[in-house]
Amino acid sequence: MEYSHEFIMPNDDIPFKMFVFEGKDGNYVREKHWHRSVEIFALFEGELRFFLNEKEYPLKPGEFMLVNSNEIHSIQSPKANRTIVLQIPLVTFENYYTEERFIYFSHSSRLQDEEVMRLIEDMYETYARRDCGYELKVLGQFYLLVYLLVTKYREMEVSMDLVRQNKKLNKLSAITAYMEDHYTKDLSLESLAKIFGYSPTYLSRMFQKYARTNYKTYLDHIRLEYAYKDLVNTSDAIGEIASNNGFANSKAFAKVFKRKYGMLPSEYRKRQAETQVVT
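User: That's the sequence. What structure does it adopt?
Assistant: Structure tokens below.
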């Protein structure tokens, strides 16, 4: 399989992830990948080329793309652009699933597109300013957006082909969701396989096939994301951060951290502190 799985963590202060697209400067390609979250790419300037299950969807300013949970997609950003991205946890929509814990949003244009674009732009500007009470305003707008999605964009009748295609990746996404909920514990491949009724060998192959990585690397990635937040937002000791986030010890944490950031956690924290003093 020529695609990978992406682990998504919400922003610290809101129950979803919102950011400016990393391909904003152009000359950027994000290869085929999938994730459990529902994703919206709202393009305000420039252009983007989307590919969903091999079909191309070119985006122009004023348009957005809805990416469903477990939908394989890739993005090409040849030119500079201004794009706001929202990644919404699938659990947000749990009261509106159709069957097989399945929900599907249409990519077709709707009358509410302009309202959605205005909402997203205002949400991001409010979030970026961080005025008093900004979380409340952003949350209000977010739930209005969710309302529009489930009432105006949700498909009530979906083909069995779509359901079957979703189920292939939903098996692994259910496992990764469990890992995200229990990453602080001693979570071996064998114990996880037993919980979900698979053999360790089969589960290992599932990760290689659908996530293009091995089980241990994926678990370390989850732990690292949470440990990174503790490193930059708290004064906890390195060993304590490692222990609180499921690493065997500070040495194991440091090894995974250095692989991604090119330095030890202590060095990274020191550099962050020096930067804050300068500014």
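The chain has two domains: 4-153, 182-278.
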